Amino acid sequence: MSSESVGTVAAFKKERFQNDSYLPTQEIMDLWNQVHGELRNEFGEAVFRSWLKPLTLQAAYHGTLEVSVPTRFMRDWIQSHYAAKILEMCTQRNPDIRRLEIVVVQSAMMADQSQEEAQKPKANQNVNVVAQELQELSSPFDPRFTFDTFVIGKPNALAHAAASRIIESANVPFNPLFIYGGVGLGKTHLMHAIGAAMRQKYPEKRVIYLSAEKFMYQFVKSLRAKDMMSFKEAFRSVDVLMMDDIQFISGKEQTQEEFFHTFNALVDQNKQIVISADKAPSDLLGLEERLRSRLAWGLVADIQPSTYDLRLGILESKRTLLNANIPDAVLEFLALKVTSNIRELEGALNRIVAHADVTKQLITLESTQDVLQDLLRAHDRRITIDEIQRKVAEHYNIRLQDMHSARRARNVARPRQVAMYLAKQLTARSLPEIGRKFGGRDHTTVMHAVRKVEELMVEDTQIAQDVEIIRRALTG
Ligand code: ADP
Ligand code: MG
Fold first, then answer.
1. 80: how many CB neighbours lie within 10 A of its CB?
2. Any idea where the AAA+ ATPase domain is (predicted)?
3. Average pLDDT of 137-144?
4. Which residue segment(s) compose the domain that 208 sits in?
5. Pocket test for ligand 1, best of 190, 211, 342 (most atoms within 8 A of CB)
6. 201 and 73, same structural domain?
C-alpha cells in the first residue's frame, strides 16, 4: 500500500502490521503523545487546530515514526511547513528517531472523533464534493464583462496588458496580479474577463472568482459549522483564485489571517492569484503589514481615472453594442461632462437611450441635456475647501477659525484632519494647496491627516459615520 492511497484504518493496519514489530512500543507512544501535546505551544492554537491535531501515530520502525493525516493535501502542507520541526522535537527525546513519515489514512480523523460525528459524511474527502463546493464559493461571470467589450486606453493599458498576459502565458507570469483603482473604472470587468477567458482556454482548470466580502462570509460560516478543513481544502485546490475588492477585509483580522495562509499555499503551488482593491497595497491601511507586502510581490497595475479619449471610446463601443442611433455630438458631450467614472457614464448613456425608446423621439443634444439635467447639475457643482471647512466645523461644533489655527487639542485637531481628508477626496486640489488653505500647513501634514482619517474610518465606526454624514451634506 503506498502512502498515497486512502483506506480505512483497519485495512491499512492489516497490511502494514503483518509484522507486529512495526507497532509502536509503549515508550514510543508516550513520546508521541508528549510531542503531539507540545505542538500546540510550538506552532500556536490556530495552526494546531487546523493542521496538527489530526496527526495520529501509526507505526515505528527502523528509526522512522509513521504518523497519519486524513488527506493528501494536509500531508503535503504539514510536510512542507511543520515536519522538520516535529521531527526535531522527536529526535530530542529519542535520538534513534531519524525520520518522520506522514501517510494518508482517510479514517484516521474519524477514529479520533465521536461515534456520531464519524457517521456524518466527510465532505472534504470527496473530490466531487470539493468541486461542488468551489462552484458555490465562486460567483458567476457577467457575460458582458469580456476582453472583447473592454476598451483599452492610456489609463487602463497596463492593467489590461497584465490581464492578457495571464491568459497567454503557459505558466504563471507573475503572482499575484494586483489591480487597483477608484470605483467604476473597470476592475471587476477585467477580472471577469480573465476568468471567462481562462475557463474557455483551459476548461480543466479550477477558476474561482469571488469578492473579499464573500470570502469572509464563507470563512465565518465554516468557522461556525466547525468545518474549516473543507474550507481550506476547497480554496487550496483551485488553479486560479480571483478576489475582488480586497479592501473589504481591512480590519478583519481573522479573515486576513486565513486569506494570508490561502494566499501562501497557492503561491507555493504556483497557482495564479488575481486581486483587486481600491488602493495600492501600501495604502491599504487596515491590512496587516506582512499581507500588504506579499500583495506587492507580483505585478501591481493601476487603473487611472479615465481620460476624455477613453470615455469617448467606451461610449462609441457601447453605441455599437446597443445598436442605437446616437449622434457623435451627444457622445462627445457626455464624455466631456460625465467624468466621475465609467459606471456613471454608462448609466447616463442608458438613460438617454431608454428615454428615446419610451418617447419614440430621436436622441439629440437638447434631449440629452434635458434628460440628464440632475446628473449634469451635480457635476457642474464644484465643492470648495471653504465649504468643507464650514460643514465640518458645524458638524463638530467648533469655531471656523480653528480650521486654520495652530491649536493641537484633540477636539479641534481631529475635525481639522477630517476636513483635510474630505478636501482631498472631494476637490481636485493638490496637497500643498490644501495645506495652504489650512493655515499654511505643510503638504506632509495633509498627507498624514488623510492617512490618519482613512485608518480611523476602519477602526472607529463613529468617525466613519461622521465623514459619511458630512460628505452627504456636501454632495447631496
Ligand atoms: P470597478 O470594479 O472598478 O468598480 P467595474 O468593472 O464594475 O468597475 O466597471 C463599471 C462599469 O464600467 C462596468 O459596466 C464596466 O463594463 C464598465 N467599464 C469600465 N471600464 C471599461 C472599459 N475600459 N471598457 C468598457 N467598459 C468599461
Ligand atoms: Mg468592482
1. 12
2. 173-301
3. 88
4. 136-303
5. 342
6. no
